[in-house]
Amino acid sequence: MPIVKYPRATKPLWHEWDRKAQKRGLRHTVYAVNGDQYTGEWLDNLKHGKGTQVWKSTGAIYSGDWKFGKRDGYGSYSVPDPVTKEYKKVYTGWWKDDKKCGYGMMYHPSGERYEGEWSHGLRSGWGRMYHRDGSIYEGQWLLDQPHGQGMLRMANEDRYEGGWKDGKKHGPGKFFYLDKGQLFEGIWAADIPKCGIMIDFGRDEAPAPTLYPIPKV
């Protein structure tokens, strides 16, 4: 009986090429068309796991966790100094869905820095901000502004403790004039004290007290 041989079925070459092109697991540096480069782990052609991304247009670099193509988890973001070309950290902390979320520290070129909680890329929750003029705000934030209860300590050690709204003193609060040994306690609205009382507070230890003490009512 004659034996009939059938030709072996072969898949088109592009099937094999496509299989090899699928990115999964740890890969060496992969370059994008625009010059961006990524080195790290992949899952189903998406950055997933640990990896480092470098953006060609800005020179910025992110190193940390990824999830389905987006920064998610813990990582740091840095940019090169325009003069020295050395990398300086801009943000170190937690991310979610490619935005700052959770606890992290933000560094500004002016020397200011923020450490605290974030949500959807904005300062929200509890945090501490170190300003360039030497003042420090510590308290609650909402949508990138002091909002809720917080304390602002000036460079000369005077301080305000109380309510905030949209980045301004608002509601019941106390302002301590430590250099004069006085305390103002009252109600604020949009950074302006509306009503309250002024009393002596630590006047004997104040470096520059008023000439006469405030009489008691």
From TrEMBL:
InterPro entries: MORN, MORN3
Signal peptide: none
SMART domains the record matches: MORN
A Pfam match: MORN
Principal subcellular localization: cytoplasm
Keyword check for Amino-acid biosynthesis: no
Cited function: Assembles a suppression complex (suppresome) by tethering SIRT1 and MDM2 to regulate composite modifications of p53/TP53. Confers both deacetylation-mediated functional inactivation, by SIRT1, and ubiquitination-dependent degradation, by MDM2, of p53/TP53, promoting a proliferative and cell survival behaviors. May play a role in the regulation of spermatogenesis.
Protein name in UniProt: MORN repeat-containing protein 3
Source organism phylogeny: Eukaryota, Metazoa, Chordata, Craniata, Vertebrata
